[in-house]
């Protein structure tokens, strides 16, 4: 089937979970296959951390150096109502223009596929026009491998979560915001000092697990001299995939996942990734589980029979 221009017209969150085809990966970020968002994000005993897939996180700064944050909408199926970076989503297969990148694109820092996906989703989520987002202004820095079960939203047996190799993109440019209420509850620009204050537990704010890792381990150094970060290769690190387990509060889920990456674990420490390795780097065939997802009147998901 020929690639198509992506559109969310007439689609609910559930529709997009079925429609969008994520890029599945092996442990080293090589493309292993494709699957829809539902199947990719389901945590269960057969795949305790779901299926590793490619993602991106955009950090958009205004002209004064403040970072644009968003609060994810309550309608989001995974990690609703949490505060996070400007935009975080997935490059997809089957899109026109294409959103898949190869190892040589990563090494060169071009990653046009991920940058195209970022422009697509900044329009979808925040209403930012592509004309305000010159693709050459995006700076790709590095990659983050992490996982997190959404037990805060869906309880101890949460059947949904994230397991991603996340491409970090920074950009500084003025933009006009028209947030999509089905995607975004709120937005704000913050200074680094303000962000540190608001991420303290006493603020009462919820933060996405991927943003908490990036903010505590990398962001301060990048933000300290933003012009240097954006205009030089001082922090460009295409060779490294930084690997971190989630915070303790996001462990568990329907597959009972525990510490792995912090222990310098290999792909064989994750059941699904081990199967990818044994299968010659290709995603194994799996039975669809989306039909087994049940949701209660409070929007909390569970796996029937678990």
Description:
With 306 residues, the protein is an alpha+beta fold. The chain is 24% helix and 23% strand. The protein has nine helices and twelve strands. The chain has helices at 13-19, 37-41, 103-108, 112-126, 151-154, 192-198, 209-224, 226-231, 271-278; strands at 21-25, 31-36, 53-61, 67-72, 83-84, 87-89, 139-149, 161-172, 184-190, 241-244, 293-295, 301-303. The strands form four sheets. The chain has a five-stranded mixed beta sheet with strand order 6-3-8-7-10, sandwiched between helices. It has a three-stranded antiparallel beta sheet with strand order 5-4-9. A two-stranded antiparallel sheet has the order 1-2. A hairpin with a 5-residue loop joins strand 1 and strand 2. The longest helix is centred in the last third of the chain and has 16 residues, at 209-224. The protein is globular and about 50 Å long. It starts with 12 loop residues before the first helix and ends with a strand. 41% of the residues are buried. The mean pLDDT is 96.
